Amino acid sequence: MIGPSRHDILGIGFGPSNLALAIALEEAGRPLRALFLERQERFAWHGDMLLPGTDMQIAFVKDLATLRDPTSRFSFLNYLHAKGRLTAFLNLRTFNPSRVEFNDYLAWAAERLADRVSYGETVEAVEPMVRDGRISAFQVVSRLGDAGRRVRSARHLVVATGGRPHVPAPFAFIGDRRLLHASRYLGGIDAALGGVTAPRIAVIGGGQSAAEIAVDAGERFPQARVDLVIRGHALRPSDDSAFANEIFDPETVDLVHGLDRQRRADLLGQFRNTNYAVVDADLIARFHAILYDERVRSVRRHRLVRDTETMAAAALGDAIVLRLRDRLGGTVEEARYDAVVLATGYDRSGLPDLLEPLRPHLLTGELDRSYRLRLRAADATVHVQGWSEATHGLADTLLSLVAVRAGEIAAAIAAFEAAAERPPARAVGA
């Protein structure tokens, strides 16, 4: 075991949220020493969903820095300038870059802060360090491949680990390569199919990722038969109209956080069709055109299996067998597939699993306005990014406000340090 080493700030995860924080800390010019721990070997953002032809669903100005500081050198526009593509991008006449390009932008920004992150480290434990009845810091234990464990401590933790892939109950007990969550689609679909030349593929879910995968699977495997299984009667378009999009504005976070629990839930419920179980209108049109073209040619490679829920699933012989119930007619049928892809979203209920050891020290499970856990008797802080939709609004799990949120967290940590009048830590090793 290597360590211990001390830091002012330890970030767990180095996706867009903590990357935005690293940028905010860098541009604030504060002397706080921060290190970010990332389990991936290199920067990648939803690498298994970087499908050809897919675009971002947010404007490029909602990047890592612009809404916090439009003059930042980490803006998407500066990335385009550095890559020599600024005027070419403008000629596209779009606010929405491709997903592949936005991932390249994020990796470009991460490379400029490579000295602040340790890749290939999986955090295994977080423990409070208690002195005289108060939490003085946190100990973080991580594993660095075959190099063993490392121990670090910090007064401030910022956890941005992403949600847990949601696996519906009928699938929870299948440990089979032929069943995979959308978060592993590109990296896992070939192994799931095992070389079957004319595979039967089921995609479970009615949202953007499900529709994207259904289209991609049909193109990627020209002899495949693809069923998109949805609980509703139709794919529903996302509401991206001007007034609806105000739910993602920075000012809305203040509004939502200031409401009581029931009023928050009521407000957010009105806007669920901006993000959940909805599909971009252009993609709906594309999938409908595929189905229509197959009708014209008397070919059946794609199906939209409507009003259907999965009652049970089992791995039987050469197939995954789904027991499907028609929610309108009540009939039940069994269908066999060579692979099943769960485009069923993510779970962000409660706290990230790593923070469970802190539960005895919590005043409440909710985060305060600056995304900080409410701890009793603490001279240290924990901020959590991407786990507070119920208290901070629908933008919390998306990219829309990562720049603004990062600035707020950086400012909150600086204010905490100033109130304590402590010098920054001298790190011993990385």
Automatic annotation (TrEMBL):
Cofactor: FAD
Domain of life: Bacteria
Keywords of the record: FAD, Flavoprotein, NADP, Oxidoreductase
Keyword Cell inner membrane found: no
One Pfam family in the UniProt entry: Lys_Orn_oxgnase
SUPFAM superfamilies documented for this protein: FAD/NAD(P)-binding domain
Pathway(s): Siderophore biosynthesis
EC code(s) of this entry: 1.13.12.-
Single GO MF annotation: oxidoreductase activity
PANTHER family, A to Z: L-ORNITHINE N(5)-MONOOXYGENASE (PTHR42802:SF1), MONOOXYGENASE (PTHR42802)
Family of this protein: Belongs to the lysine N(6)-hydroxylase/L-ornithine N(5)-oxygenase family.
Name used for this protein in its record: L-ornithine N5-oxygenase
